[in-house]
Amino acid sequence: LTKWVARENRSRNRYGDMVPYDQSLVLLGRPWSTAISHPEPQITVGEAGQSYINASYVRRPEYGSRGEALMALITSLPEYIATQDPRENTVADFLTMVLEQRCPLIIMLSE
């Protein structure tokens, strides 16, 4: 689904070859608390198209007894959001996401 939505929203992606996974997709108008209470991705094409921003929730991995990183539990709280730096036409979406998700810190790594 996300690949299709990303293709449909090419003008909203800085890099077309980097798209979020459905299960970690941040949607505008859907705070992370909603994503946690309904962890399975239940995204319709229309919803994803209207609410799309190229951003993913990032959860800290769990660690096994030998120190190996394991996949985070879907119910664990996201600690970060990874996204692309906004384009001129997505600055408002970016700021909306920051406000809705209550991001306390923004770190930008870009050229």
Describe, in plain words, how this protein is organized in 3D.
With 111 residues, the chain is α+β, with helices and mostly antiparallel strands. The chain has a single domain, classed as Protein tyrosine phosphatase superfamily (Protein-Tyrosine Phosphatase, Chain A, Alpha-Beta Complex), CATH 3.90.190.10. Helices cover 27% and strands 16% of the residues. Strands 1-2-5 form a three-stranded antiparallel sheet, with helices on both faces. The protein has a two-stranded antiparallel sheet with strand order 3-4. A hairpin with a 5-residue loop joins strand 3 and strand 4 (69-70). The longest helix is centred in the last third of the chain and has 10 residues, at 91-100. It is globular. 16% of the residues are buried.
How are the secondary structure elements laid out?
Layout (H helix, E strand, L loop, with lengths): L1 H7 L16 E3 L4 H6 L7 H7 E7 L3 E2 L5 E2 L9 E4 L7 H10 L11
Antiparallel strand pairs: 1-2, 2-5, 3-4
